[in-house]
Design goal:
heterodimer, A: mainly alpha, B: mainly alpha, two-stranded antiparallel ribbon, 72% helix
Amino acid sequence: MRVMEKLMEILEDIQPDADFDTCETLIDDGVLDSFAILSIVSELQDEFGITITPADIIPENFNSAKALWAMVERLQEA
Amino acid sequence: MSLVSMEFLLFAAAAVAGYYWIPKRCQWMWLLLFSYIYYASGGIRVTCFLLFTTLTSYAAGILVEQAAEKIPDKKKAKRRGKQVLAAALLLNFGILGVLKYTNFALHTVNGLFGTEFGSLQFLLPLGISFYTFQSMGYLLDVYWGRAKAEHHLFRFALFVSFFPQILQGPIGRFSALGEQLYASHPFDGKRIERGCLRILWGYFKKMAIADNAVIFVDAIFGNPELYDGLGLMGVLMYSIQLYCDFSGGMDVVIGIGELFGIHLDENFKRPYFAVSITDFWHRWHITLGTWMKDYVFYPVTLSGWMKHFSKFAKKAFGKQTGRTLPICLANLIVFFVVGVWHGAAWKFIVYGLYNGLIIAFSGLMAPAYRNWKKALHISDKSRAFHLFQMARTFVLVNISWFFDRAEDVPTAVLMMKNTLRRLDFRQVLEPGIEIGEASGTTFTVVALGVILGGCLLLFAVSVLQEQGKDLAEIFTRQHWLVKAAVYLCLILALPVLGQPSGESGGFIYAQF
């Protein structure tokens, strides 16, 4: 749970005006632009020791905080 | 065969008629046949380049997929896939580079070292940038596991050569376009009607607005010293011409796609309503922007050397700036490529970097902007602030158009200086000043009136579309008499409002 809190902290630091608690269309509705996406990627890589490749940057992985967390878990297991 | 010709309209009409007449399972073959007839009508030798790209990307797609599936050692499989991908990218972008940029490179070397290399004559296959980008995007998708390789050579050939889009895009993605091209499409009257309306609207934008604006653009940009008081008018006219030319062409292309039951990606979303340069690139030439984002911007930012730079930047400049700097650098690389893509000249590189620098600067300043807006109680939802952002973006975009359209960078700078120093719209009406081949005050006033009227109509339509209204849907629900009147008006307007010579120029982006 603490790890999810860390993720939320990263997201809110990068895009303070977005609603990460409920929004499930962060990419589809243009809430996150490519700068924000890559800032999130940079922080996630540093914080969780994962490697995110261009193949992982798809809307399904970035549309919500939950989806992001699922991607982090998957990449940690890989 | 230009999109603006009776020849093309008859060709497209024959293609559509046969498409719904033959058995549905043969529809994709019919499209392939017509696509190759269309392309080969531009010359058999250039068709060889299209065939080369088709065959190499088809074979590479299968080899990349087989490497991932059949080589048990993951590292070896990845290495093999990478080798095949690199070879295909090198071959195809290599051909594009040699054909488009050799002379630019030779001139630059001559300028730098005083050498005297002469220009070389190359064939430049029409639409080579578009079909190369589309094919290489497919290959990268297969490599990243986002798409399955197409194993049917002729089906793949259709994806690369689909005739409405091959000359000026939109750049399609295999995942969205492939299935549509190969599927059966029953006759759908409503869709045909929407397609026809879209085509006519595209021709209106191109022939009535862009082809009139180009007369002023060519005259003013061709004689910047003579028309030193018309710099502002020149760039505004170019704004209008470029948008109506390119988006009008896209309307025709997308409309023809609809006639076959195929939905092509939108390439424009009312770009002059953008509130920032980033937003502008989300609305202008959208498929090139998303291609660059997915296949250049993300891979460059996530590359190993950029990760090292990111670590260094975070240590040197702190977390926030350090995180953003590598993204800004990658963004500059992307816009350098966008500039080069637009043409083999330094002015296009300046044009690309100008856009890249503004976006990078905005990215770096984003936290400061947020704080300033908070301190000044400015809300993003405020109408006045929204209008200010639109006006600011429009000015910034128009500055970039000087570089895009002027002969070279010094001429662009001279025209910008003249725009600030002197404003004299009367120059356009002075007797003796010729505007292109046509001349005379009456002609000028009529042409300006047509452009103004066309732009007002375009603006009204754009505002309604921006509000989310589906005008084509509303149109199809009207009484047939109303629809017939609108069709008739648009059809009659084209020869009357178009260029006096009655001949429409080619599309700007068909030269890419």
